[in-house]
Amino acid sequence: MIFFIDILSVLAISAVFILIARKFHFSEVIGLIAAGVFLSILPLKDVFLRSDREYLEVLSSVGLYTLMFLSGFEVSWSMLAKQRKNSVILTLSTMVVSLILGFVVLRLLGFSTAASLIMGICFGITAEATKAKVLIELKKIKSKLGSLLIDSGIINDIIGVLALVFISYFFANNFSLNEVWNLVGIIFSFLLGIMAHIFFDRHNFKMKMLEKILFYTIVPFFFVNIGLNFNIFDFVFDYKLFIFIFLASASGQILGVLLIKKLINIDLKQAWLVGWGMNSKGAVELAIAYVAYRAGIIPSSLYSILVAVALISTIIFQIIIFKMVRKNPRVMN
Questions:
Q1: Half-sphere exposure of 222 (CA within 13 A, CB side)
Q2: pLDDT in single tens digits along all 333 residues of the chain
Q3: What is the CA radius of gyration of the chain?
């Protein structure tokens, strides 16, 4: 009985945070991350999450597979054709610069080679979904910068999943059999989502309803597990480390855009907007951080900071894009 009450509590709290996120024009992913962090607070954890942790771990895995399926389902090859060349240049530049900057900064801060590499990869990951919802609301998804951001998000998601395989193979030597199957499930779910997009009309009413049902009833449990592994004191007490990592993460993406702005034919203001757009995080980055943490590659402090960085950087992007588009509606053309 307690187990079912916990399930209903998680879904209800997640729904409330999603509604709050919408109210402030933020993505639903922001709401779910916030809900997971909210449930990580100790008194609330004891009230809303009283059942056996093993049940929540199982539901979290199912939620992660579902989230990766939906991420793959959002991959649109027809959209990718619009800005293919510029998107490839943008993705490679931001990922390489972020990887190098993240690796160097984390090594200078005294972290291991493996942890530094993971953080660099996470710095370079962006998300299609968190950008798409904002661009649709602004009616800018078909604009020049809108297409560029979405297309780069598609390429970035695919590279991110490949990076997840790379990380697990070379650095996660202490993977248990359950974690191996968990990784297989993540990759299979993502590929299955891509295949589903090819064979089914994503804009069909029934498919949209299926997406919403999966997102609201299963995905929240993955974010709850993120919250359970999240420790707010990791960056409250070590705020200097948080600031260094946040600045390194944001700077890598923005610098990567500035270096190739002439190649993709955008001006300085547009480069600033695209740079923060590339800082928008989502499912793949959180999945990489989660797998790396579970495998012992990164400590809990870095995991908690990555979750906080994902939340804050995505919020900043959405504030910046709304402000810039209201001030200059043609900035994305």
A1: 27
A2: 666 777 888 888 889 998 998 888 777 778 888 888 887 776 766 666 666 667 777 888 888 888 878 877 776 555 555 557 888 889 899 999 999 999 999 999 999 888 898 899 889 888 766 666 677 667 776 777 877 887 787 778 778 777 767 776 776 655 555 666 667 777 788 888 878 877 887 777 788 888 888 888 888 888 888 777 777 766 666 778 888 899 999 999 999 999 999 888 888 999 998 998 888 887 777 878 888 887 788 888 888 888 888 888 888 888 888 888 888 888 887
A3: 19
pTM of the model: 0.79
CATH of domain 69-215+235-327: 1.20.1530.20
**Would you list the domain boundaries of the chain?**
69-215+235-327
